[in-house]
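Incident review: delayed structure delivery

Summary: a single-chain prediction request sat in the queue longer than the usual turnaround. Root cause was a stuck worker, restarted by the on-call engineer. No data loss occurred. The affected request and its eventual output are reproduced below so the record is complete for anyone auditing the incident later.

Affected input:
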Amino acid sequence: MTLIDQTLPGETLRSLAPAPAGDPAAWGTRNAHDPTVVRDTDGTWYMFSTDAAAGADSVPAGVHVRRSDDLVHWTFVGTALDGVPAPAFEWSQAPGLWAPEVVRWPAPGAAPSDAAGDDAADVRWHMYYSASTFGSSTSAIGLAVASRLAGPWEDRGVVVATRAGTDSQNAIDAAVTVDRSGTPWLTYGSFFSGIYTLPLNPATGRPQTPGDLGALIARRPVSVDRAIEGAFIVYRREEDRYVLFCSYDSLFDSYNVRVAVAAEITGPYTDLLGHSMTDLDTDAALIGTKVLGSHRFGDDTGWLAPGHNSILIEPGTGVDEYFMVHHVRFADDPSQHVVQLRRTFFTDAGWPVVSPQPFAGADAERLAAPVSLAGPWRAVRLAPESSALVNADTVSVAPARTVTADAPERLFDGSTELVRLVVGGADTSGAASGTELDAVVFASWDWANARPALSFSGLAADGVAWFGTRGA
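Output delivered after worker restart:
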């Protein structure tokens, strides 16, 4: 039974049992890395991921595909592409495909183009996939197209390629963003020289300038093995700026997600404290605002090395819904990994924060009655200087204001609300004391206790993120 195949309510993550490695029908979201989720025209969702199969030799290479009607229960439906397409294999000798990015084409928001070409017209979906071998920068990002998410997918060859010893870049981990003017951009890169972005031709989906390897937007120093990858950029019209998500450190045990923002898609990207994402002089662990890392709530499953995220944006009535889609390992058995979706919010200051709880569906997360902030909370401080698993502590949470007879503490019904919170309680006068957060309060599913609950996620002035669940 996998996380998303549970019956809700009544079970916790402790009930998880390993899924058979060679039986995709039993996987759910097991055995998936580097996931992206897109919504089909019929309202269903498709997940595309690296063809990781936990050692299952019977599972074919190629991008793995899952389908869902609710973003909670997922069914394996096959493999897009029959192994590694010949042009990408000839360049990279890759045994499988990594990190697919699937987008509707022309991408939503893209400016119309009069350019002709066989890549335009009837093509509805583009898939950018990576072909490489572990530890090598001789890599290729290829393009496949389809009129339906279910396929069939037709390979259109390599769009960006790098060679070890010639190029400093590493052509893996593609992601597509449409800028404020409607131009699509391809962001990619990893260890070696960092993350790059380049404009694409809206008609063909290929680089506007053939051979362009893009502009550098983020990197890390040799002292930490230049460990950065899995970048994804979101353009936020609300703040008219770009939000960069990327993963630091090792996918095996220490992945964590960092964010930074920029006025232009090409940067410079800076974190909450103003550090540049290309800075090689400041302590490398302190650059980038950490919003998700290894953690555990109570006696429940510990989640290790969450990372390589994409962002699913679901149009809402007035306000869009955001979900971070990422893979994560089981702390008690890091060889086992699973995909999670977590609600993602933007604070009053426009910074992204992530739910402490994996998404369980809107109905499961709905509170039975409004609740107060008062009471015990379990919270995690996502210390940027450490990649170790953090056990949630019991804390008090209060509004960042004095509670008086004229302004009594109000109840929260689970609607998403932007608030100023203090983690640490109140002093003898009733004034809030402790760490003040630019935060969001919302309903969630408390997996440790198998019930809906109130949660928060926020950022302190020192650039450190906190998240927690009431009564966890």
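Verification: The mean pLDDT is 89.
Action items: add queue-age alerting; document worker restart procedure.
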